[in-house]
Amino acid sequence: xxxxxxxxxxxxxxxxxxxxxxxxxxxxxxxxxxxxxxxxxxxxxxxxxxxxxxxxxxxxxxxxxxxxxxxxxxxxxxxxxxxxxxxxxxxxxxxxxxxxxxxxxxxxxxxxxxx
Length: 115
Fold this sequence. Notes:
By secondary structure, this protein is mostly beta strands. It has one helix spanning 8-11, and strands at 13-18, 29-35, 41-47, 50-56, 59-63, 70-78, 84-95, 98-103, 109-114.
């Protein structure tokens, strides 16, 4: 198994969902993550060309363990979760470039890549 080497700094940036099998959706829904180095992060959901931004007070990364490709992103006080922390389960799909699958709960598992 590949050793899990990802840090919070690796996630800072803009991430967009990609339609790559088996995580392809044809539902006119685009999800973009803005993971900031400061205390603001955002999940943008674009449905039928209408954007809705859900802000949070930053994010944290929690690794499952050193031998696992699973991790969690915690959006602190997220508007998408009525002001409570939003915990999203993730799994690394590729390390070079870094691509991961994120479970967006009601929107399903989406593959995201840094923009």
